[in-house]
Amino acid sequence: MQIAVSTSIQSSRRVVWLAMFPATVALALGTAWPTAAPAQVANFHPCNSQPSLPICKYGYGKRVAMKRWGAKPAPLDPDAVAKATLITRNPAEEIKNIKSSTVIVQDVDTLEVLFARQENVVRPIASITKLMMALVVVDRHLPMDEMINIVTEDRQSESELPARLAVGARLSRSDLLHLALVASENSAAKALARTYPGGASALVDAMNTKAQSLGMVDSKFVGPTGLSNENVSSATDLVKLVHAVAQQPLLRQFSTDPKHEVNGQTFRNTNMLVGRPNWNIMASKTGTTRLAGDCLVMQIQLGERKLAIVLLNSQGQSGSRFGDAVRVQRVVNNQISAELALAAQ
Hints:
alpha+beta; Beta-lactamase; two-stranded antiparallel ribbon; 21% strand; globular
């Protein structure tokens, strides 16, 4: 039995995909979404309350979390662990357990929406912003081997974590782009903006122009890092952004590298799912600020499908946004299994 729920998103008609689930399960899926997640506490940073995250286990993240705030390790979301199962027989329960306030899972080829929640709500997107910054830099065809010095202004930001790149450090544009995407290094993003033709203001203008060209009608950018809460978008728009990034080979590689080493320093990917077996990630970016909460966008290959996954304002235990991504894959794998079983009959 197939059940489809039609919904109007802006001017186009999308389908919330519940194919082949029993009617009772489909009804449960429609009512099982959690209530809106609460706002983050003041002075929130993931390494403050969640030092067990990979980014907080290494280098400055760990030092700041333990010394500045005296943070104690928080339990890791059980669905975020490396050995978490990726198949379920209870998709309704999986969706019920999703911790993100805003969710969309969409097939980027067919534009079919598998499921969604608050997908048109406009909210801060934190360092997801860096995907648009990187896309604009690549579009301009700037020389990637050009060497750029880190200056004092590159290290000045509103972030609670200090920049890891020292004043005077000399890196190629390629390395800076790599660090901005892998480790979400704010000083790298600011150096890229500063050295963009016309400076940071020209880069921001290009970011907004690019958003318009991609049909991102809910999006606005005011800076390259995402630290400003005026960098906003919707989950529907971010599907378009992550798909555009996945089509750029350089950005696809940089955003999905487990780590990048430069000048004797190792910078690790802020997405703990990168590099795991059974995860074919084509583009990825995390983001976190107090108002944006924990965010994650990815494009993945799952079976024959290319899926965009957008998870914004995730709440719960440490790594809950990654647990949400695991829960999403379980639901989709359940659907794939059902389709294969039907085809075999």
